[in-house]
């Protein structure tokens, strides 16, 4: 069974639209767990347009499953993560003004930077995952930099699946995902995945990437919850993740 970590950013987007505390994202996180989520993911961005740094601090004592904080390792982000000590930090190479994440790390060019950053988190006992494009050439660099896991950036997969839903396993891009997953597993890196996964494309990914330990899903899951309700939606996603 692959774990489902629910990314609650978009609940915070809704809350921030009115300035009050509706929906209460602390309650949302606890409800997600009650409804079956195996983890809670947040991605505080520098402009705090959805998750705020204070939310992350407030969530820490309440999250009883796996707490995963994603983001670019700026000094502020690093201070926050080292203070909160989540179960996992996922490093993403997003510039401050990114609308959303749209690529993984170049583990060769940023090797020494990643080594320093990952070293600081590992010293604090935090598991480190790094966001990666499906490219076998980048896997070794993730390992050398000290990462425990990689998170495959699934945005391009989602697009490919949507455009070629008949037989995506035959397309080059999906082979890149399979090969990257295999290469990671061969050198002892565990595998996460995320970005634009949804009820259409998740099962196929899970079935063809047997190394998959965890997915983090937010945008589509929150949109589905409008129609199906949060509890049903979480169960629908979990059903896609059974072995
Ligand atoms: C790291 C990643 O894949 C992103 O999907 C991210 O966590 C979502 O961020 P936004 O909610 O800001 O689009
Ligand atoms: N790491 C990916 C994530 O947390 C959620 O991405 P999305 O489902 O909001 O695209």
What does the model show?
This protein is an alpha/beta fold. It has a single domain, classed as TIM Barrel. Helix content is 45%, strand content 17%. The protein is built from eleven helices and eight strands. It has an eight-stranded parallel beta barrel, surrounded by seven helices. Helix 5 links the parallel strand 4 and strand 5. The longest helix has 15 residues. 1-deoxy-D-xylulose-5-phosphate binds next to loops.
Core attributes:
pyridoxine 5'-phosphate synthase activity, Aldolase_TIM, 17% strand, 243 residues, globular, 45% helix, pyridoxine biosynthesis, 8-stranded parallel barrel, alpha/beta, binds 1-deoxy-D-xylulose-5-phosphate, Pyridoxine-5'_phos_synth, TIM Barrel, Pyridoxine 5'-phosphate synthase, binds ligand LD2JLWAY
């Amino acid at each position: 069974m692959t774990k489902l970590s629910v990314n609650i950013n978009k609940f915070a987007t809704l809350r921030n639209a009115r300035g009050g505390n509706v929906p209460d994202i602390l309650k949302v996180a606890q409800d997600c767990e009650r409804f079956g989520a195996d983890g809670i993911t947040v991605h505080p961005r520098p402009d705090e347009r959805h998750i705020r740094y204070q939310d992350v601090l407030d969530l820490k004592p309440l999250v009883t499953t796996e707490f995963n904080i994603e983001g670019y390792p700026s000094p502020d982000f690093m201070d926050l993560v080292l203070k909160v000590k989540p179960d996992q930090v996922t490093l993403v190479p997003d510039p401050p003004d990114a609308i959303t994440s749209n690529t993984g790390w170049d583990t060769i060019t940023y090797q020494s930077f990643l080594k320093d950053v990952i070293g600081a988190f590992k010293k604090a006992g935090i598991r480190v995952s790094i966001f990666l494009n499906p490219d076998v050439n980048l896997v070794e660099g993730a390992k050398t930099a000290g990462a425990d896991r990689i998170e495959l950036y699934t945005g391009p997969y989602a697009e490919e699946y949507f455009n070629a839903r008949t037989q995506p396993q035959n397309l080059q891009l999906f082979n890149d995902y399979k090969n990257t997953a295999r290469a990671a597993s061969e050198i002892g890196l565990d595998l996460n995945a995320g970005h634009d996964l949804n009820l259409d494309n998740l099962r196929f990914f899970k079935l063809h990437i047997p190394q998959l330990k965890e997915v983090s899903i937010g945008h589509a899951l929150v949109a589905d919850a409008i129609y199906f309700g949060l509890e049903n939606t979480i169960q629908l996603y979990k059903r896609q993740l059974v072995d």
